[in-house]
Design goal:
By secondary structure, the protein is of the alpha/beta class. The protein has 2 domains: 108 residues, Urease, subunit C, domain 1 (Roll); 289 residues, Alpha-Beta Barrel (TIM Barrel). Strand 7, helix 7 and strand 8 form a beta-alpha-beta unit. It is globular and about 70 Å long. The protein binds 3-[(4S)-2,5-dioxoimidazolidin-4-yl]propanoic acid and fe (iii) ion. The site of fe (iii) ion has 5 residues, from loops.
């Protein structure tokens, strides 16, 4: 219950895309938001604001009739790593495939080597501006996976960096352990022994408070369904939810396997089949589409979007930011690509980066919509209609960002507008 004597903040003059289900965009033309203690206490048409609440609101702000959406949620990123892979980009342009590079020891392995050679402070320094680039476009919740350390020590280091970003920045960070991302060199030829080791160190990471969920890469260049199952059994024994990089390069029936563990999400899904779709629908597992990786790897096979839609599987969109397959830092660009490349509607794309993305992180009850009781995370945009968020690209129409009830605009725009007219040479 709200302490009736506590101060409330009223945000008015908002055209709200609440993203609540049931109507297009959850639209409220002349809306208001009441915030208390980091949470939304009331959301609705301004004229319906209860007088008792209005009387208590001692601070008032106008949002200038801007379109206001929930803070964006990027539900799939590999933000913490050393080095980059621009050279592999050149090799791929010259004809090498992602798989050929990976099998020749490049790919994820080269980022593992670079990550292990980067100390914690430098990993943090590299990841910080990446997080801030996402935040400058209205991201207020971000999932960060490990998976480039691949030893107890190096995985912990990457997860600590992720946790620290969540402490230092006005950003909700969810940390996902992706030890089953690739086979580290010291376990070459011994994948089962590596999975044993990764399962054995997971409780320690959990004890240190570094893990919110467990992910795996189930594919023919990565881990088998059986190895994935062992990782998931360990997660389940620790009470952790799971998610899966499933059916990205081939169909391993990973989605059905993950759905059997009530996975929060299955991600990529270019090779997903009907049985996988039905299993995801039955389990309430979110399909996370990653148009950045689809684009950057020049994939031609689309995930089965019409069938996912028809089965009622919630669809989310994320950056998959990583140095190999998706080195992009714009969730807004992903909305555009989800529409142009994958034929989502602009509304589906925005739901995919708010309501459904929150659900893919197990945060459906607290984030991703503008609704009383949820986090007071919202963004005011310099657009006439929310469909424009998927329309413009290379433009950041973000005008104001409020996260946990606190206006973080100055912090976030200081990053993008370091050069003001006063400071230009
Ligand atoms: N699928 C991906 O697209 C990323 N990881 C994964 O399992 C790629 C990671 C990389 O190439 O470094
Ligand atoms: Fe990924």
């Amino acid at each position: 219950m709200t302490d009736p004597s506590a101060a409330l903040t009223l945000w008015r003059d908002a055209r709200l895309a609440t993203m609540q289900p049931g109507s297009a965009w959850g639209w409220i033309e002349d809306g208001a938001l009441l915030v208390h203690d980091g949470l939304l206490r009331w959301v609705g048409p301004a004229r319906e604001l209860p007088a008792a609440w209005a009387a208590q609101a001692i601070t008032e702000h106008s949002l200038g009739n801007a379109v206001v959406t929930p803070g964006l949620v990027d539900c799939h990123s590999h933000l913490v790593y050393g080095g980059h892979r621009a050279h592999e980009f050149e090799l791929r342009l010259a004809g090498a495939s992602y798989e050929q590079i990976a099998r020749a020891g490049g790919g994820i392995q080269s980022t593992v080597a670079a990550t292990r050679n980067t100390d914690e402070a430098a990993l943090y320094a590299a990841a910080l501006p990446r997080a801030r680039a996402l935040m400058a476009e209205g991201v207020t919740t971000l999932e960060i996976k490990s998976g480039y350390g691949l030893s107890a020590e190096h995985e912990a280091r990457c997860l600590r960096v992720a946790r620290r970003l969540g402490c230092d920045l006005p950003l909700t960070v969810r940390c996902t352990s992706l030890a089953a991302h690739a086979l580290p060199p010291e376990f070459a030829g011994r994948p089962d022994a590596y999975i044993d080791a990764a399962c054995a160190w997971l409780p320690g990471l959990v004890e240190q408070g570094l893990v919110d969920a467990v992910d795996a890469f189930c594919d023919h260049i990565a881990f088998t369904p059986d190895q994935t199952r062992r990782m998931f059994d360990t997660a389940r024994a620790l009470g952790l939810p799971v998610k899966l990089h499933a059916e990205q390069l081939s169909n391993q029936h990973g989605a059905a396997l993950a759905a059997g563990y009530q996975a929060l999400s299955c991600d990529h899904l270019e090779h997903l089949d009907d049985a996988g779709i039905q299993a995801m629908a039955a389990a309430g597992t979110v399909a996370v589409l990653l148009p950045g990786a689809f684009y950057f790897l020049r994939e031609t096979r689309l995930p089965p979007i019409a069938a996912l839609r028809e089965a009622g599987v919630p669809i989310a969109i994320a950056t998959d930011h990583n140095p190999g397959s998706s080195p992009g830092l714009s969730l807004l660009l992903m909305l555009n690509m989800a529409c142009t490349l994958m034929r989502l509607t602009p509304e589906e794309a925005l739901r995919g980066a708010t309501q459904h993305a929150a659900r893919a992180l197990g945060l459906g009850a607290s984030h991703g919509q503008l609704e009383a009781g949820l986090a007071a995370d919202f963004v005011a945009w310099d657009v006439d209609h929310p469909r424009e968020l998927a329309y413009w690209f290379g433009r950041n129409p973000c005008r104001r960002i409020v996260r946990a009830g606190v206006d973080t605009t100055a912090f976030n725009t200081a990053f993008t507008t370091a050069f003001t007219p006063d400071t230009l040479p």
